[in-house]
Amino acid sequence: MDKTFADRVIEFNKNLSYRGNLPKGFEVLNPYLDNPETITVMQKFYHKYYDDSNNRKFIIGINPSRHGAGVTGVPFTDTKRLESICGIKMSSARTHEVSSVFMYDMIADYGGVDLFYKDIYINSPFPLAIVRKTKNGWLNANYYDDKELFEAVKNFMIESLKQHVGLNLDTSEVFILGKKNAEFISKLNKEAKLFEKMTVLEHPRYIQQYKSKDRQLFIDKYILALKK
Length: 228
Hints:
- This protein has helices spanning 5-14, 31-34, 36-49, 69-72, 79-84, 98-110, 113-119, 147-165, 179-192, 204-210, 215-227; strands at 26-29, 56-60, 120-123, 129-134, 137-141, 169-177, 198-201.
- The protein has 228 residues and is of the alpha/beta class.
- The strands form two sheets. Strands 3-2-6-7 form a four-stranded parallel β-sheet, sandwiched between helices. A three-stranded antiparallel β-sheet has the order 1-4-5.
- The longest helix is centred in the last third of the chain and has 19 residues, at 147-165.
């Protein structure tokens, strides 16, 4: 039997490992190795929403946060929304992530999780969480926060994007979250020639933190871009 979209994503996630170098002070966290329940929860999620062979649109984030996909294994999904909206309970962790709040409000306006995930797949060019050592402990980091970090992970990201595309994604237009993220993805795209057109949307975290009064406008902007 042919593999479904779900089978392919699960296989990709289970085989994820970063073995490259990192600049001093940075570390990569692999949620699938750090918590056995993450694999179970992630499999339930993809079997529930992606058990088909549909061609989907691709939304590209930055890299998972420690409290979102860094725990659940599902991009932009904390344990609260995983349980309350997707009906999948995670016993070993309780997390709340601001980006997840925006994403699921947008998904509700799109028509709900079944419809949204039937049309759209979300992941990141660097699909593991990156943390940086600071005097206050370890904090979330973005792959582009440091020039050396970006150079170190660049080839891994190109390879990862190629594998995502191979899941059966529409490459005629890709949706990128965050302007700075888009600058770096466009560098990768010049090299790897993966996507024909790049549409940039404001990152959910930025909207929640700085533009929360206008969040409905941004939700509408997302939906207009994704449904056209």
